[in-house]
Design brief:
The complex is a heterodimer of chains A (about 280) and B (about 160). Chain A contains 6 helices and 12 strands. Chain A has helices at about 1-15, 20-35, 35-85, 85-100, 105-110, 265-275, and strands at about 110-120, 130, 145, 150-160, 165, 175-180, 185-190, 195-200, 210-215, 225-235, 240-250, 255-260. A 6-stranded antiparallel β-barrel of chain A has the order 1-2-5-4-3-12. Chain A has a 6-stranded antiparallel β-barrel with strand order 6-7-8-11-10-9. The mean pLDDT of chain A is about 80. The model of chain B has no long low-confidence stretch (mean pLDDT about 85). The chains are: A alpha+beta (about 280), B mainly alpha (about 160). Chains A and B meet through helix 1, helix 2 and helix 3 of A and helix 1, helix 4, helix 5 and helix 7 of B.
């Protein structure tokens, strides 16, 4: 076994690493030129067997630490609360907090799955998250994902125990949006995997500070989820359209928990996706 | 590379990705952060040569590819394999590089990596130009500064493993 390993190492280090270079370069090119199904399969296998367990472990350690701190905090709070006599006001406060938590559920009438973010891109471009909920918990491909602040993205691949979330800044995610004040519809995308921009008809008079929400037209996201605010309006290549820089309500790198809306895509969209 | 060297590099690999997903975010200034993964590949290639540079470059790139858009799978792997090989070749051709040369190589590796990545992903020309100005240039400078400090600190500890 060791001799075989040594043989491979010797083979790869021949000619100043040219053999190794050619091997890995060809492997990379093969992966890049493979069909989407094969690429999905490669990512799914790597994620399920290596990366998700490692990240889950790391995330659990962090979670354990935060639970310890939270536990201490809760003990103190509990002691304080015992001394308080105004139980009714506490109950009301808790009710208000819980109402905020479930307001999305009330508004859209779709069940919500709460999940924890266990991993994200280890690179400089954040386009994907991994969450600890999968098909076992009722999560399916293309379900909308949001946080308390607004839209986060959608499930790009649901696996048994975990799922990949395609963030709004993924250049391959295009989204139909509605400007709340003018009610004009446009579309949102990220061209560079970093910043969000929206294309909206110029005549509508959308200005910096205006709010964008989901339009519900794409068939995947329901209407009315807050997306972000217009930061600046720029001239697009087409005079009839304005290009806008958009600041998302949710900062993606700081996400710890997200909600998955158990909403299947509209039937016509589902047919297109299946095709 | 000895067995101890393999193990050490593997542990460093895990540590680098842990640092990149945590510390690198805290060190961000106006959205500009360092890339410890490139520092790792350059360090490995400089210490162990082109073959090790290719291997660890490919593994690091693949780790990033798993979390990148599906359509871009392989882009990081290819770019970082090229960087690992090129830096390893430099080390083998010029025997030992001094600290300023290593920092220069790190900056060059950063540019090469980003250029190949942008090329493979097929981003539009104006998007690449914008990313180059707002991301590649400031982040390469930041990475060179931090990488320089790490190279300086590790130079005293370099041993034959």
């Amino acid at each position: 076994m060791l001799r075989a390993f040594r043989f491979i190492v010797d083979l790869f280090t021949q000619r100043h690493g040219v053999v190794a270079f050619a091997f890995f370069l060809v492997l990379g090119i093969l992966m890049h030129s493979a069909s989407t199904a094969v690429r999905e399969s490669i990512i799914e296998s790597a994620l399920s067997t290596v990366f998700y367990p490692v990240q889950l472990l790391a995330s659990s350690v962090n979670n354990f630490k935060s639970l310890q701190a939270e536990n201490e905090h809760l003990k103190e709070e509990n002691a304080r609360l015992r001394q308080e006599t105004y139980h009714a006001s506490e109950g009301l406060q808790e009710l208000a907090r819980l109402h905020t938590l479930v307001r999305f559920d009330d508004k859209w009438d779709f069940p919500i799955v709460t999940s924890r973010v266990v991993g994200h891109n280890p690179g400089r471009f954040l386009t994907t998250l991994v969450i600890n909920r999968g098909t076992r918990h009722g999560v399916k491909d293309n379900m909308p994902v949001f946080s308390m602040k607004g839209l986060v993205g959608k499930i790009s691949k649901a696996m048994l125990t975990h799922s990949r979330v395609q963030l709004l800044v993924d250049p391959n995610l295009k989204l139909s949006v509605l400007e709340r004040r003018t009610r004009v519809v446009g579309f949102l995308e990220s061209m560079d995997g970093r910043l969000l921009s929206a294309m909206i008809p110029s005549h509508a008079g959308v200005a910096a500070g205006d709010t964008l929400i989901t339009s519900g037209l794409g068939g995947i996201f329901p209407k009315g989820i807050p997306v972000g605010t217009v930061r600046a309006v720029r001239k697009a290549d087409l005079d009839v359209m304005s290009l806008m820089d958009v600041e998302p309500f949710q900062e993606f790198s700081t996400l710890e928990e997200v909600f998955v809306m158990q909403k299947d895509p509209d039937w016509i969209i589902q047919e297109l996706l299946d095709e | 590379m000895s067995n101890r060297g393999w193990l050490r590099t593997l542990l460093l690999f895990i540590l680098v990705f842990a640092v990149q997903t945590t510390v690198a975010e805290w060190l961000e200034i106006l959205g500009v952060g360092p890339d410890f993964v490139v520092v790792f590949i350059v360090s490995v290639a400089l210490r162990y040569g082109a073959a090790a540079g290719c291997l660890w470059g490919f593994l690091a790139g693949f780790t990033q590819d798993v979390y990148a858009p599906v359509e871009w799978l392989g882009a990081n792997s290819i770019a970082m394999t090229i960087v690992g090989f090129a830096v390893g070749q430099l080390e083998e051709r010029f025997l030992t590089l001094n600290l300023p040369a290593k920092i220069g190589v790190l900056g060059l590796a950063f540019f090469v990596n980003d250029m190949f990545y942008f090329l493979i992903t097929g981003l539009e020309k104006d998007v690449v130009t914008n990313l180059f100005v707002t991301k590649t240039v400031p982040e390469s400078i930041y990475t060179m500064v931090l990488g320089g400090i790490l190279f300086y600190l590790s130079s005293g500890k370099k041993s034959d493993v």
